[in-house]
Amino acid sequence: MNVVTNFKWIEAANYDEMSKIAATIFIDQLKKNSETVLGLATGGTPEGFYKELVAAYKAGEVSFAQAKSFNLDEYVGIDPANESSYHYYMDHHLFNHVDMKRDNINLPAGIQSNLEKAAAEYEAMIKEAGNIDIQLLGIGGNGHIGFNEPGTPFDVGTHIIELAQSTREANKVYFDSIEDVPTHAITMGIKTILSSKKIVLLIASASKQEAFDRLRSRIVTEDFPASALHNHPDVTVIYTDMK
Ligand code: PGA
Asked: 230 CB contacts (<8 Å, ≥6 apart)?
């Protein structure tokens, strides 16, 4: 199916500029509404974005004191204290350096006796917060958003997913070996992501060229999860040279 996309495409000169443009969008949103509900992402791509947010906070340009956040995903079975966890990543790259209140920080729990229940509760918390005002996304080489791997139905909320082998391979750099990369994750669903009011997608590495081209093709299919974003009215894609 071909659709007319509302995407706003911004080509940045380089990685740093991409990070700055994205950070400016989030900072402007926080200035407009200090109680913004942030949707946050992990991975290599947004590291520069978080550096920019921390620098802006330290320069007194922005405060997170009234903001709330929900992260996209977490590995199943990885302790929050583990350096490979997304809890750890977020503390390290953002939360330890800004004035977010701990009570306002939310990440899905990867260690729970009843993961399905934890997923449903996470989904309910997002709704209760009035949904996410602005959601940051990266994209997997296979087109995943959050950890919604190819084939994930577009109409499910936060859930448990089996990671694609290509995702485990791509993320093994963060673990001692491929065997240590979890097989499952808890992730916001595509339905959750689409309920965000505004979405900012960052694309920056050579391994994402094919995903970038598929997104450009505007063909919407569950085989390519990011294509669901064409159904959202306010998506900004900030990309930079992928060579
Ligand atoms: P990356 O991952 O930013 O580490 O490339 C993005 C993703 O897989 O969603």
From this structure: 3, 5, 7, 218, 220
Question: Measured in angstroms, how far is the CA atom of residue 145 from the centroid of ligand 1?
Answer: 9
Count of domains observed in the chain: 1
In a domain, 242, yes or no: no
- Look up 35 and say whether it is catalytic: no
Q: Transcribe 116-156 into DSSP letters.
A: HHHHHHHHHHHHHTTS-SEEEE---TT--BTTB-TT--TT-
Q: pLDDT digits over 193-216, tens only?
A: 999 999 999 999 888 999 999 999
Q: Which numbered atom of ligand 1 lies nearest the CA of 205? A: 5
Q: What is the CATH number of the domain that holds 214?
A: 3.40.50.1360
Any residues with CB less than 8 A from the CB of 32 and at least 6 apart, and which?
none
